[in-house]
Write a structure and sequence with these properties.
- The chain is α/β, with parallel strands linked by helices.
- It has one domain: 3-Layer(aba) Sandwich (Rossmann fold), CATH 3.40.50.
- The chain is built from 7 helices and 8 strands.
- Strands 3-2-1-4-5-8-6-7 form an 8-stranded mixed beta sheet.
- Strand 4, helix 4 and strand 5 form a beta-alpha-beta unit.
- Helix 4 packs across helix 6.
- The chain is globular, with a radius of gyration of 17 Å.
- One of its GO terms (molecular function) is polyprenyldihydroxybenzoate methyltransferase activity.
- One of its GO terms (biological process) is methylation.
- It holds the Pfam family Methyltransf_11.
Length: 248
């Protein structure tokens, strides 16, 4: 643990089994999932303060629950398919639910906030994943996403470049064919009552340099003018979808 060594993938790209292979690295700030820690902080910063007692945040693709230390006032419900990750999430106070984010086993309208961090670029049915995220939201609830753009630049930076440098994703973890079309994402969100605003982000070069030198275990994500590589999206549900009593 705690190494910047990049390894050659033994599995096919986007194989979920990789997360079991790399389970020891989830909470290592210098390990293979280091950037997911940085993104968790940036994602949590977009989560509004809870508007009611007992507010629920549903974390789609929660992994080992890396957002847990950065959330206050919410019941943090994490949905993931990988047993080894969910076990670690539960150890960090997350209510762990095993499930497919395209068929989430939770009630419609149960969530005040839904996050989908670094997961949309792993699904084969983006429309279904977006529909489920929006279905879970109460009217007025907030959707927060971050993912990788389906552009030539996105594929070059996130795969060709990032898989070879410290702080980048594990080799083979992404299939660039599944990267997300930004217009399609906004269109599908709008169809389900969520107007999504996007902004591009990247790691701070200064912080990344300090991280490589082991002078800091955290790297800030900073805004950039383009959403052509890595981007965040945030929006509120105003219309669409069915409403229920909000119970999990």
């Amino acid at each position: 643990m705690g190494t910047h060594v990049r390894t050659t993938p033994a599995r096919a790209r986007n194989d979920p089994g990789q997360y079991d292979d790399l389970a020891q690295y989830w909470w290592d700030p210098y390990g293979m999932f280091a950037m997911l820690h940085w993104l968790a902080v940036a994602r949590a910063a977009l989560v509004p303060p809870p508007s009611r007692e007992g507010a629920v945040l549903v974390d789609l693709g929660c992994g080992a629950g890396l957002m847990a230390p950065h959330l206050r006032g919410y019941r943090h419900v994490g949905v993931d398919y990988t047993h080894s990750a969910l076990r670690q999430a539960a150890e960090h106070g997350v209510t762990a639910v095993r499930g497919d984010i395209c068929r989430v086993p939770l009630a419609s309208g149960c969530a005040d906030v839904v996050t989908a961090g670094e997961i949309l670029e792993h699904v084969t049915d983006l429309d279904a994943a977006v529909a489920e995220a929006c279905r879970l939201l109460r009217p007025g609830g907030t959707l927060v996403v971050d993912t990788i753009a389906a552009t030539a630049l996105g594929r070059f930076v996130a795969v060709t470049l990032a898989e070879k440098v410290p702080g980048g994703p594990p080799p083979g973890i992404h299939d660039p064919a599944l990267f997300v079309d930004r217009d399609r994402l906004r269109r599908e969100c709008a169809r389900h009552g969520v107007t999504l605003t996007l902004r591009g982000i990247r790691p701070s070069v200064r912080d990344l340099t300090r991280w490589v030198r082991r002078r800091s275990d955290q790297v800030r994500m900073v805004s950039v003018p383009t959403t052509a590589v890595l981007f965040q999206g945030v929006g509120r549900r105003t219309t669409g979808g069915s409403t229920v009593d909000g119970g999990l």
